[in-house]
Every structure is written in structure tokens, then in C-alpha cells.
Design goal:
Two copies of one chain form a homodimer. The first copy, chain A, is an alpha/beta fold. Chain A has 14 helices and eight strands. At the A-B interface, α1, α9, α10, α12 and α13 of A face α1, α9, α10, α12 and α13 of B.
């Protein structure tokens, strides 16, 4: 692990160094959960789940079997749940208010239905949140409102500031908070998707997924580190794709798309074809990148670098969010039309006014 | 050449379709220059210069030998001048007010010194402008102020709107305007740098560089096309590098740079090393990318896509503009410190206030 930047103090922080949240809970912890700070066994050696492991190792036989609640098992969340299940835990979810599609997904992967959130909170000493970034704080609040005092792992693409806020809320209520950030697509293959974790209980959170295929990586004790890493990584991958969408839409609007594609194809390069694929393929996920781009913009501004890249990226993904659930990958012309739609609408409005 | 986007009308234009500037000059043309619209010979077949070619082909023996003026021969301009010289033209420049470094560069490449701008305008029926984008309009204006009526090739990284404005100014004064955009680094190798040209006289402009190594490409008759292509191409290459600078600076500021580099290095990838090189190497050119980023932002806004990507990129390049002329490539830590400097200064000011 490269450690150059860690060896010296950070150059700048607009907000104080990420708060190391106290884990001294002011309220009694979840009956089935207790933090064990000396548990630092390596991943992939346990196969009976994080709580079974704690029980067998430390003789706390009164502890419940590993029960982990997942909010809410979408494409990514279901793969996170599957790794926790592989690792010996019983995985619960809340069917109340969810779609038939979610129910089918949960059943397919053997998740247990807690029915309602109060029941999930009662059953599970560990809850993992995987949801759209904009919903992260509300989801956390709703869990606390049910009296949750266990370990809450927020694995969402949120700014470090927001992670600190949610963490503080958890600690204030007597729960334990672990900051998480997922890098990669849904985790169905080993060595392809990483759950980075930070906070004092990060290792225990990692142990819940020890059998993979989701990889875990414990970053350190500071809440916000995992979210910061996720923000910076996503900033480049999703930022450059959004920029590419904007470039191709601008070229289309200006009547030079064919010339641009030809320039990209100089010397036998397949960049033009690659770029067209990237723009077409991002449409399926664009709707859920919007919130993440806004979180990244806020993160960058707070870190002292311009947030406009991702403000623009949020706008780009908003314009093509309508391709969510499309039965097939749209044609490039249709994507570019959607990217320019906003202007077209504006022009129509202007003409009508 | 891919022509899909050309075959159908543009989806959107905030400004009217790029003006096809009339070449009916209201004032008499430069005595040594006359447009020959039927001259469409291929590049690389002439070796005596664009004007010699016209004379020998069409028997206009009264025409002067090919004399081309270059404003101003920097690293890129000198290579453009070299290709025009290879193609049989005498190349003039203006030493008045320029640095010793420019003089040395011009002498090394056999440019002839016209001394002053009025003398250059008197001598040369063709003038090529290669300057910082922010200076393009002033340079054009100063040439016209000397009574220029020849062919003016603007090869600068300017928005199509600005190209149209300069072009209109030229035509109004009785000169001929060719819109140009250079893609690639200084043109010392064949097949590496392209001068795209548009406007009715684009082919004649291309003929001035027929012997290379600068490659020319005639796009069409619309002023603004060449600039639009340049803007869209540069938007992606320079935009993604600026974004990378911002990402690494944010990671440094947030204390997760080492973690980000490790994530980039997963599965044996050398992306971390590549990214560090990109950020360090862009510092030498950052100072002259600032104006281009502003032009791209304006181009994008006009084309109906967000301009914020490049507003942010302009800010990034401004912060590292101070590395201009550095004797060696700076260390990554120094680049990141410069990228975060602005914030640091702000913080100091805030603390002092």
C-alpha cells in the first residue's frame, strides 16, 4: 500500500479532520450486538458469519446467530447481502412497501422477510444501508426511530461530511456506526468489487462479509475515510463518462460529430467506437448517478477543489435518467437527442413565450 | 469518414447555423492574393508553396512568391511555420516587442523578420494566427488595422462563436477568413498533428502546408466548423486531465490519496503511476490551457450542454499555471500543493480576518 500521502499531514481541510466518533454509547447496545475491538482476524477465514465467529472465539454463547438486515436490496445491495449470507449470516430485509421485483430478487437469493422495519431492527444487531445517496440520511433516521442500538454500516455513495453527520446521529443514539464505500459493480465475482470501511468497528463490519465474493478493506478509524475514497474514485470514472456524454452531445449540436469520430479514429484507433459504447451503456445506470454526482460536488468543494465538474455531471445524468429500465441499450442518436432535449424544450418554451 | 451526424439536421442550435461568410469582398484584395475557388488539389503534391502553385497552374505570373506571415511563432506556431516553409513559402514574423527566446526560435527555423506588423501585412498575402485564445480577437483586429486584405487563417483554440465574429470582421474589411483548429502537439512528425480548416478558402489555406509534416484536413465551407471540432476534441482530453488533477488534489486534501492509488493499482494495473505522470506532465502547458477551457465552456453552453466542466478545468489550470517554464517536471506533492494553494490562501485570509 502506497503511504506517501498518509505519512505527512493533510495540506488543507476546510472542515476539521474527520471526526473520530466516540463509540462510548450513551444508551445500552442492541441485545444481540457488542463491539469487540480486539477482533481483527483476516477476511475469508470464517465461514459461519461475523457473530457466530465472535461467539465461538470469545465464548459469548448468549449472542444471537449472525443476523444482518439489508436496506434495500437493489442490484448492488442484493450482491452485498449474498456475500454476508455466504459468510454464515441470516439476511433479513423489509418487504413492506417494496416492489414485486424487489420481492422476487430477495426470494431468489434466499433473503428472509422481516416484514416491517421495526421487526428488522428487533431481529438484527447489524444493519447495512445500500440506497440512493439522497435517501441515506432518511434511511438512517428511520432505523434509529425504531430504537436501533446495534452496528449500522452505511455503504452509500455519500460525501464524508454526510457520513460524519449520520455517524454522529448514530452515536448520539447509542448505536455503532461504520462508514462504508463500495467501488465496483454488483459483487458477483471475487476481486472485482470492494467494500471499503472506516471507523472503530470497521474490522467487525468487514468480518460480516469474510467469505466474499465482495472484497472488504479496512481503511482506518476515521468516519468519513471510506466515503471520501468512494467519492474520489467515482469522481474520475463517472465524471469522465459524463464529460464524454457532454462532448458528443456538443459535437452533435455543432454539426461536427462525424469529424470528431474521424479524429478519434486516426491511426487505426478504436476510440470512437469505444466512446460510443460508453455513452450508450451508461444510460442504464444514469438515474442513480445523479445523487452521487451531487455528493461528489459537495465533497470537492469542501476539500477545496472545484465542484463544478460534478454539478455538470449531475445535469448530464439527469438528462438521460429516463433510460432507466429500458428494455435494450438505446441507439447513440437517441442518447444524444436526450442529452440535448433540455435545450430543445427550453427553445420551444422560449419560442412559445 | 463517418457521416451519420452530417446526413441529418442538427438537433439543436442555440445560435443560428454557423454563418457561411460571404467572400465577396467590399474592398480590393491584397495585391499578392486572389482567391481561386477551383483550386482543390490534394495536399502533399506541391512543393513550391501555395502561391507558386497558383501562379504556375493558372499562369498568374504577376503574383508574388508565396509569402506567409505567422503571428506568433511559439512552440506550436513555429512548427506550423516550418510546414509552410517546407511547402515552398517564405515565412515572415514580427520581432518587434517579442522576447529573445522567440527571436532565437525564429532564427533557428529560418523565419524572415518583417520587423513590424505593418511591414508583415504589406509583405504577406497570407497571415496565420497562432496565439493564446484570449488574444485571438485583438490579434485579428491589429492585422486589419494595418489594412490587410489577404487571407487570414485563425488557427486558435477559440469557440465557434468567436471564430464567426472574427470572420465577419475580416469579411467586412475585405479580407478572406479561414477558420482553423489544431489538434495534437507541435507538428514535427507526420500523422501526429492536424490543422482542420473550414470556410470557402479552406482548401487554399491547406495548400500552404502541403508538404507537411503538419497534416491538413478541409472540413467544409462553414466558418466555425474547425473551431467547433477543436473545442470538442480538447474538451475531452484536457477536461479529463483537469478532472484527474482535481480528484488527486481532493484525495490528498481528504487524506485518502494512498488508498485511492491502491484502488487504482488493483489487479496489477499501472493506472496509479500513469495518473501521477499525467498530473505532473500537464503542469508545463497548464498556463496556456486556461483560455482554451474558458472558450470550451462558452462553446458548450452555446451548444446546449453544461459548461461547468470546463469552468472548473480553467480554475484547475489556473492554479498550476505557475509551473510555466519550470526547469524540470515538478514532484506530484508540489503539484497537489499548488492545486490546493488557493484554499490554503483563503484559509489564511479567513484566519487573519
Amino acid at each position: 500500500m502506497v503511504s506517501a500521502s498518509k505519512a505527512r499531514p493533510c495540506l488543507v481541510r476546510r472542515w476539521p479532520r474527520l471526526v473520530l466518533l466516540s463509540l462510548c454509547a450513551p444508551a445500552p447496545p442492541h441485545p444481540a450486538f457488542k463491539i469487540n475491538p480486539i477482533c481483527h482476524s483476516s477476511p475469508r477465514v470464517h465461514n459461519r458469519g461475523c457473530f457466530d465467529m465472535h461467539r465461538s472465539r470469545h465464548g459469548r454463547s448468549g449472542m444471537a446467530a449472525g443476523k444482518l438486515g439489508i436496506l434495500h436490496p437493489g442490484d448492488m445491495g442484493i450482491s452485498v447481502a449474498a456475500s454476508a449470507k455466504n459468510s454464515g449470516n441470516d439476511i433479513y430485509w423489509v418487504s413492506e412497501g417494496r416492489s414485486a421485483e424487489s420481492r422476487a430478487r430477495a426470494e431468489e437469493h434466499g433473503l428472509l422477510d422481516a416484514g416491517t422495519l421495526p421487526h428488522l431492527v428487533e431481529l438484527c444487531p447489524v444493519i447495512v444501508s445500500v440506497c440512493p445517496p439522497g435517501a441515506a440520511e432518511d434511511v438512517a433516521r428511520s432505523v434509529l426511530a425504531q430504537g436501533f442500538r446495534g452496528m449500522y454500516i452505511d455503504a452509500n455513495a455519500i460525501s464524508p461530511q454526510r457520513a460524519v453527520r449520520i455517524g454522529q446521529m448514530m452515536v448520539d443514539a447509542g448505536a455503532t456506526f461504520v462508514d462504508g464505500g463500495i467501488i465496483g459493480g454488483p459483487a458477483w465475482q471475487p476481486n472485482s468489487t470492494w467494500l471499503h470501511l472506516s471507523g472503530e468497528a470497521a474490522q467487525q463490519a468487514a468480518d460480516c462479509f469474510a467469505a466474499g465474493p465482495l472484497e472488504t478493506n479496512v481503511l482506518g478509524g476515521d468516519i468519513g475515510q471510506a466515503s471520501a475514497l468512494k467519492m474520489c474514485f467515482g469522481a474520475y470514472t463517472k465524471g469522465t463518462t459524463a464529460l464524454l456524454c457532454a462532448v458528443m452531445a456538443a459535437a452533435e449540436s455543432l454539426g461536427v460529430r462525424a469529424d470528431l469520430e474521424q479524429q478519434w479514429s486516426q491511426n487505426g484507433s478504436d476510440q470512437a467506437a469505444q466512446n460510443a459504447r460508453k455513452v450508450r451503456n451508461v444510460t442504464a445506470k444514469a438515474w442513480r448517478f445523479v445523487g452521487e454526482m451531487n455528493e461528489i460536488a459537495a465533497t470537492f468543494e469542501d476539500a477545496g477543489v472545484p465542484g463544478e465538474f460534478h454539478a455538470a455531471a449531475a445535469e448530464i445524468y439527469t438528462r438521460i435518467a429516463g433510460f432507466k429500465g429500458a428494455s435494450e441499450t438505446p441507439a447513440l442518436d437517441d442518447v444524444l437527442a436526450a442529452l440535448l432535449q433540455d435545450t430543445q424544450n427550453t427553445l420551444v418554451e422560449e419560442n412559445e413565450a
